Amino acid sequence: MTTATLHRPLRFRDLVRPFAPMAAPVPAQRKDQASLSQDERGYFLLALNTLLRQGTYAQLVAIHSDMTHTMHNMGDGSPEAALGQQRFLPWHRVYLYQFERQLQRALRDQVPITVPYWNWETAQEQSVPGWLEDVLPTVAIGAGTISVFRSPRTQADLAQILAGTADPTVPSLATVKKATTYIDFATGLEGVHNLVHDWVGGTMDSLVTASTDPIFWMHHANLDRLWWEWYQGPQGHGLDPQLSGVDAIMDPWRYDEPQTRDIANFNYSYV
User: Fold this and answer.
1) For residues 101 and 24, is the Cβ–Cβ distance under 8 A?
2) What is the pLDDT of residues 76-86, one digit of tens each?
3) CA distance from start to end of the chain
4) Cβ(96)–Cβ(217) under 8 Å?
5) For the residues 18-30, what does the mean pLDDT come to?
6) Which domains does the chain have, with CATH numbers?
7) Are 191 and 182 in contact (CB under 8 A)?
8) Contact, 104 vs 25, CB < 8 A?
């Protein structure tokens, strides 16, 4: 079990230096985790463990914990919830990219490493990826620690989530894909996303601790892929979040919402 220690409290300057926009070395191809070679899996785990040892992983976890109420729809009808509804997808696109670049930097940009996506839509991937089953780090933040654990339910439960029968308030993934407005798509996809977090269970089931689990990144890479596919399709083409002013800045980074619309701006693609 690997322990990552954050040796001092996270400061605002930490958000500027390690996580400022960074030029990618080469165009990155994000692949389905099931298609990765043994070498690709090994490089991902090597980079992940490097971030854990350095404390960088703990810093990234702290960012998600601190920002959670402004980039999720909390469902309470508040202005923050409405903002989170708009920001959910673009904010996590930037967050995922920052993690990916830290992985690449951990291996000194010598290996074309990317964040693979966990395509839980396919029957053969409706379980926690086997090669990640034993990757359960302990992340130390400040004076406390978070030990990753999971309690996934059955494949049938996940199939119900995707079919829209697990929760009457969450549409099926097929319905989400047919959405003709950004809000309908983003809200529906966030609902499916929430239920998958709940399905994995353990630390993934909490907004504060979810990103401690390495499966978090692959889950969100899949959401990002689904958004990109919808955005390019006839239903979603040209439909964007309605954000302006400071609300359009994906803080704590310098990206604004229009920059997040095209994944080419982040130098990656999906295969």
Assistant:
1) yes
2) 677 776 777 88
3) 32
4) yes
5) 63
6) 3-270 (1.10.1280.10)
7) no
8) yes
